[in-house]
Amino acid sequence: AAAARPTAAEPHFRAAAALHAFYIECNDAEGAALCHGGPMLNSVERHQAERVIAHWDAFEKLAPRDPRLVDEILFERAILHTKLATPEHLTAARTDYLSIIARRHIGSRDGNVMGNLAETEMMLGDLDEAIIHYRRTLEIEQNVSHYFGLAVALDRDEQGQISRAILRTFGAGAELFPVRPDENDV
Q1: Dist CA 167 CA 31 (whole Å)
Q2: How far apart are CA 152 and CA 123, in angstroms?
Q3: pLDDT, tens digit, for every residue of 55-100?
Q4: Numbers of helices and strands, H then E, in the chain
């Protein structure tokens, strides 16, 4: 359909949705899924992920203001880019997360967006940005994994003392979601 109507965005949206559902999503309720369901993409899934991304890229180029970009595509595309894990894909994931943040008001439901952006920055080796984004994430959502991510980023940035202080808050008898460490400490 995309070849028959090269200026139409919808065929790209639907092709990406079908490929994503069959090869990437691994929904157990869908008996037709062709993916293995593991955390890492196998070679077939990697190829299909590239196809999904290409269709989403074409859709975005043809319909840049379609609300489905922010509501359905950008986050999923960023996840696929992260799973492909090349420097180019990680940079594209960063761009998608930043696009989500730029296009909508970030609220408590967006802790994953901010947290994933922080993790992507760390994967790209930009520890300063990772630390900034983990702190912003914790302003939005108090989550153990975000504290641990911040601790890892701080440790990699040779701020081990602060990292250990954060981790100690989760020691035996500690509250599950402690009060955010003092700004002077972090």
Answers
A1: 42
A2: 11
A3: 999 999 999 999 999 989 999 999 999 999 999 999 999 999 999 9
A4: 9, 0
- Tell me how crowded residue 6 is: count the other CB atoms within 10 A of its CB: 10
Q: Is 94 helix (H, G, I), strand (E, B) or coil?
A: helix
Q: What are the angstrom distances between the C-alpha of 174 and each of 1, 48, 146, 169, 170? A: 57, 44, 16, 6, 5
In Å, how far are 43, 180, 182 from 115, measured between CA atoms?
Answer: 27, 16, 20
User: Could you give the CA distance from residue 63 to residue 71 in angstroms, rounded to a whole number?
Assistant: 14
- Rounded to the nearest 10°, the torsion over CA 53, 62, 93, 80 is -20
* 122, burial (CB in 10 Å: exposed 0-12, middle 13-18, buried 19+): buried
The 3-state DSSP composition of the chain as helix, strand, coil percent (nearest 5) reads 65, 0, 35
Residue 108 banded pLDDT, cuts 50, 70, 90: low
